[in-house]
Amino acid sequence: MGWAAAMAVVAAAVLCAAAARAEVVDEFGSGASFIFGDSLVDAGNNNYIPSLSKANMTPNGIDFAASGGMPTGRFTNGRTIADIIGEMLGQADYSPPFLAPNTSGGAILNGVNYASGGAGILNATGKIFVSRSFPNSINNNHVIRLMMTEQYTEDYILIILSSSICRCSCMIIR
C-alpha cells in the first residue's frame, strides 16, 4: 500500500470515528480534540514561532465567524477540517493552539491543537519553514498532560481523555 493510500485509510478511519462519536453524549460533554498535523489543521501555532510559514494576514480568516473575520493563523479563509469535525462532535469551542498564551487552565479541557504549518512527520520535513515536526508535537502533548495533572484529579483527566479524539493531518512529500 502506497503512502497516499495509507493516508486515505487513516483519514477515512478518523472520519468514521468522528461520525460514531457524534452519537455519544455524556455528562462531561463531547470530550476534547487533540490535533496534530500541518497547515491543513494549524489553528495558529505559527503565530508564536519564528517561521516563514505564517497565515496571520488577510484573506485568511475573513469567513471565520469566531474571530470576527480577522486572521487567526489558520491557513484558510474560515474553519479547518479539525474545526468542522469538532463542531460535528458537539464541542463548544475550538481547540486552542498549543503555543497561544491562553492555552492553560480550563481551555485545555476542550483539547489542544499542536499542528504547525510546514511541519511534517519527519524531523527534516519543512525545516526551512519551521522547526516543528510531528515528534515535537507529541512531546508538547506531554506538557499539556503535566498541566492537567497539576490542576485536576487523575479520575477526571481519565474521563476527559477517554471521551477525546485525536486527529492527525500531515502531507507526505517525497
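The above is record 1. Record 2 follows with the same two-line structure.
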Amino acid sequence: MQSMDAIRPDVAKTYQVCPQYEFGSLIDLGNLRNYKWYLDDQSMSIIRIFKPALPGRYSLIIFSAQGFAYSTPFVTEEECELRVSYPNAVQPGRPDKELLIYTNTLIDEMKVSIQQVGKIDLLLRKSGSDFRGIYLLLGWHI
C-alpha cells in the first residue's frame, strides 16, 4: 500500500538556538495525526509545535492520517553572540554609500545615535535583557 497523503515533513536542515536567551525557532508542520520530536535518541515532545532549545542532532517522525510514518533529521547550532555588521564605506550625501546596519536574529531592538565626529552609538537588546552598548567609528566627519 502506498500513501496518497501529499504531506511530508518539511523542516530546514539547520536552525539556530541560544539556551542562554531561550532563543529558538518555532517549527509548525500543520495538522497531522502524531508528532515525535527527538534530540539524539531522547524523546523531546509529541505536540504539533516544537521549539528546539538545545544544540544537537534532532529527528522528527510524523504520522499521516493514513497511518504512514515519515522521518526527517535536522540540526540545531548554538548562536548566542549578538552580531552587528555595517558598511565601512559610508559617505554623507552619497545615497549609494548609505549606512545600513544589519543584526542577527538575537537582537530584538536597536537604538542608533549618530554623533558629529563620525561615531555611531548602538544600544542592542534581546527581549528580557538589558541594553548592551557598542560604538562604531566610521572615519568621516559630519
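The chain has no helices and twelve strands.
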